[in-house]
Amino acid sequence: MNPVIASITFRAMLSRRRILLLFLLPALLLVLSVGLRVSGHADLDNATMLLTQFGLGALLPLLALLAGTGVIGPEIDDGQIMYIMTKPIARPVISTTKYVVAVVLVVAFGVVPMFVAGVIMTGLTAGLATGFAMGALVAGVAYCALFLAIAVLSRFAVTIGLIYALVWENLIARYASGAKTLSIRQWGISVTDMVTNATAVKASVGSSTAVPLLIVVTVAGVVYAGWKLRTLSITGTD
């Protein structure tokens, strides 16, 4: 972890244009949760549907995609990463610092709003808000690792990430039972199901499968990103 690189990355990610994107989805989630509460429809079933479909299904992966690719992808594309790599800093430290920044952003703009939305709708009933916060946290950590790895691998990281998050997880994995095993979203739901007592939360992947896969994807993504940076030439990108 390098505090200088972290500070520079935070400033870049919290620029005027990006901060609007980071605020948009969580703000919408909070507005929807308030709407359900005011209208009297904020029961456990509706709260679970909103937090599962919009929270874990859209808000979290899109925020993680924005953060995971944004912390390093633009620097690779415009060559600025080469300036950082000329400094006496180990390249795995660079990638790990970028990863930590991405996770902090996802926690601030994804996990916390999901917990607040859950509390607005159901309070602390059945541990629903806490369960979804935990599910979002572990899923967000894995998403960031995956998207960071894709960002150092390809210039088309955003497109690849969108295909995974929207096509694979929200279309293919929803209807193909075998594909659910390779869905970070489903792993997050599994952790949520472990924490909450709400019967409306139903995991399609067992925790004995989800937890090890979350760990593997997270570790593999961070390690691969550090290794891939080592293969980049100081004089240009590959």
Description:
The protein is mainly alpha-helical and 238 residues long. It has one domain. 79% of the residues lie in helices and 0% in strands. Helix 2 packs antiparallel against helix 3 and helix 3 packs parallel to helix 7. The chain is globular, with a radius of gyration of 18 Å. 46% of the residues are buried.
Sum up the structure in keywords.
238 residues, mainly alpha, 79% helix, globular
Outline the low-pLDDT stretches. Answer: none
Overall number of strands? 0
Rg, Cα atoms, Å: 18 Å
From the helix content, strand content and strand pairing, which structural class follows? mainly alpha
Apparent shape:
globular
Number of domains: 1
Distance from first to last alpha carbon? 25 Å
Question: What does the oligomeric state look like here?
Answer: single chain
How many H/I helices? 10
Q: For the residues shown, what is the average pLDDT?
A: 90
Strand content: under 5%
Order of helices and strands: HHHHHHHHHH
Main β-sheet description? none
Which percent bin holds the helix content? over 70%
